[in-house]
Specification:
This protein is 46% helix and 16% strand. It has 16 helices and ten strands. Strands 2-1-3-10-4 form a five-stranded mixed sheet, with helices on both faces. It has a five-stranded mixed sheet with strand order 7-6-8-5-9. The protein starts with 13 loop residues before the first helix and ends with a helix.
Length: 334
Amino acid sequence: MSCFPKIPSPALTRRAVLAGTAAVLASSRALAAPGLVFKLGTLPLGTASWEAEAISRNGLDAASGFKLEVIKLASNEAARIAFVSGSVDTIVSDLIFAARLRAEGKKVRFLPFSSSEGGVMVAAGSPVTTIEGLAGKTIGVSGGPLDKSWILLRAAALQQAKLDLQKDANPVFGAPPLLSSKLERGEIDAALLFWNFCARLQAKGFRQLTSTQEITASLGIPGKVALLGYLVHEDADPAALAGFAKASRAAKVLLASQPEAWTGLRPLMEAPDQAAFEALKQAFISGIPNRPREVEIADAAALFALLAKLGGESLTGSAKSLPEGLYVDQALYG
């Protein structure tokens, strides 16, 4: 039973479906070269496009026996529609969405992409130094009332200080760029943001009050779980899928070990200065998954069970535990 009020799951509207389909059709193009093609759907400012560029720029797809095609999509909703409809072979999405799909009978697998999550940001001179200090403050929350980090933050506040941030603070929900700007202008006291927005703010001198990883650790989940991953179709062409997994691993190794490999990616990162560029780069590298598959799955299962308990069906759907077979096989996991 959830300790939070039940909130209806957001529906896919007809307008969203049309927008998602149109985006896919507008972005798709026939490839002149024959062979295996694997289509990756990416978002504006999405970090998956950084890895995709590293793959293409360094010929890692060709070396792995396939051609990577990048399909630019307008929003998370459009990306999910494109993936479920089969218009793209993979997108980066969160573990909860992947688990919900598999629990509903969809043949979906999950390949970890990043354990970088984000956290609560405040101004450098803010008097708020603990979660308890958020009482009475205006908190910007990315992703809406069902954002997993918001649910975890609320649970930590209840556990640590018997503080219900939904009632004892003033949460406002919005898009990350808007909330980030509001925090910079001093219009809100704190903002719960995705990691790339946290990195940009830290480069400007803002302070991270707590991270999502620290929050989950306080709730008894110490492992650094990769909550973001590539969603892939179980019945995808085995050779193309294996090639993509191999190229993805190679790109991560390259980006973690060769600083010059980032030079060609910088235009995609939209870093306004060197400090922001370095912060984004280091945050990406620190989030590269490197734990054994069985350890990753065990911690992910514990975290998912916690989220199912806290958020209930509104968050995790019919799944009360991580569905069997969700993660890709060891050969693909790497």
